[in-house]
């Protein structure tokens, strides 16, 4: 090894890439880049039944979307490939054979029923269930004989009872009594290795220096260290990241909603905001600063500032960060990203930009634009007459005001149809609106806004009118007058 830091993210493609996986990938990426090292993507698809190509594609797409480009991995290659475990069978076979030959692993032929009986017995004695090693003493000849006769077996690793200690870069010294583990299954057969084994082989073969992963893997670590030792492989450094918790402080899971990266992407969270948010799940910059770009995170990142306690996946914080990134975007760019969420795409880009511009300040995620701005695209608006009445305004009074608005707007030329002009023309009238003893602009601006949007809340009437244009604006005022007349 040339001393270069090499980290890896090793997802199993058995479901849509998860935000938790994205956070682990991010921390591996940040640490590698900070140290001038390499970030490797390895697809752990040894579980043939549950692994799917579609999910693998989703992992690649999700990481790319977040800007977490891997230095080596699928679609990239590199000198330690292939980077899919399903393509590395021969390699695992070589190491499995070695362990079997050395007697560090053995074939076990216990049936599921026998194992279950053993488990139940141990539980009844209040012991932790573990494999007692009934097959450990079969001679190599007996093992071969049974295999030759077609008996199905699995390969177990003979665990030595001892204390395995390692230094975790986040959690400090950790020691395990391996006597509690029992002999772990490391492969279903020579062609089907299991996670704890293949991960050791790959981390060595791919020259991984640092294994940064979720805390839920901490109990796998002693097993992996024992396998490493048996194969006489050098160790790696471990850093176990704090759990992600839901807002109820229980472990983040499906119960808390769809936490796949694609779900967040579909709702219109920006990759920069998601990265920023994920970075703060367990890591703190040592100051109050909350906003970081990916390159800034690379500069600031350190494993020392990762906490041990669980990190709360706080959606409000994500919304806040996302809103902030949205506000700081160039309008052209934001409008282009919003386009797929708008109900019609036959609207010219200037208009689209104008619509999106009305919401830039308040959007939390892009998908919200669909509901907020749908009225711009509607042919006729449907709503109750009530909506047009401001406070104690009467139907008749409101009708009159709308007639007045129509008359004034009619006189405005197409070329003068700007928000500022409309405001200049209508405001003097609005100031006088309502009962003479208590005039208020609300009596005019509210029904105008409601007539143009059909909504309780929307941008102001002049902004909407400018975007709608003269014809549509007048049509909607007319429609409101009609709705009142029929009410
Ligand atoms: N394939 C494992 C997972 O997805 C990788 C764990 C590890 O990083 O060792 O959880």
From TrEMBL:
GO BP terms: glutamyl-tRNA aminoacylation
One GO term describing the cellular component: cytosol
An example molecular function term from Gene Ontology annotations: zinc ion binding
Pfam family, one: Anticodon_2
Motif ('HIGH' region): 11-21
NCBIfam families linked: gltX_bact
Name the UniProt record assigns to this protein: Glutamate--tRNA ligase
Species of the source: Candidatus Yanofskybacteria bacterium GW2011_GWC1_48_11
Taxonomic lineage of the native organism: Bacteria, Candidatus Yanofskyibacteriota
